[in-house]
Amino acid sequence: MNLFNDLYTAEENLLPQDGTVNYFGQIMTDEQADLYYNKLLHEIEWKNDQAIIYGKLIETKRKIAWYGDFPFTYTYSKITKIALPWITTLLELKKLVEHKTGETYNSCLVNLYHDGSEGMAWHSDDEKQLKQYAAIASLSFGAERKFAFKHKATKKVIALQLVSGSLLIMKDETQDYWLHRLPPTKKVHTPRINLTFRTID
């Protein structure tokens, strides 16, 4: 386990206002995290993500996959994705995350960042298909990466390191008032896999 966990408790809200973010730290051993990382790397149906920017279709280096209870549609960056049926590994992790967070989820967006050059710009997960104020649980595997929140009005920034096998949850009005991002870095040269369990309304 990582000593970094000692800096946080799952009950602590990392946001000073307008939302709730809890960091559970590692919820499994390093060995379990490595095992799941390798299984996900080989079992997920990875595809390069796409976005329409200034009217042009852009394909990212980052790879994604979308899974769910039903063939839900999910639209972001003006591209619509249809959920694939769950695989056993994801169902195992969903059950673990639901137990830890006390929430339920019906879908999961999976991201593969090959190295630190790949990240995500400031954004909120506020798409219409998502249930309002429902929890979004983020489970990380592989490379340790910085993750940051920025308040839309005050511009206050809160940042932390997400380690392999760790769980973070965003809920309540967080998406209304805060942006979040995974900043690129030249210090990371190995992949990270991130699972965000969500609820489609």
TrEMBL record:
Domain (Fe2OG dioxygenase) ranges: 104-201
Cross-referenced Pfam families: 2OG-FeII_Oxy_2
Name assigned to this protein: Alpha-ketoglutarate-dependent dioxygenase AlkB
Highest taxon of the lineage: Bacteria
InterPro entries reported in the protein's UniProt record: AlkB-like, AlkB-like_sf, ALKBH3, Oxoglu/Fe-dep_dioxygenase_dom
Example of a GO MF term: dioxygenase activity
Key words, A-Z: Dioxygenase, Oxidoreductase
Keyword match Lipid biosynthesis: no
Record organism: Empedobacter falsenii
Keyword Nucleus tagged: no
Alphabetized PANTHER family for the sequence: ALPHA-KETOGLUTARATE-DEPENDENT DIOXYGENASE ALKB HOMOLOG 3
Upper classification of the organism: Bacteria, Pseudomonadati, Bacteroidota, Flavobacteriia, Flavobacteriales
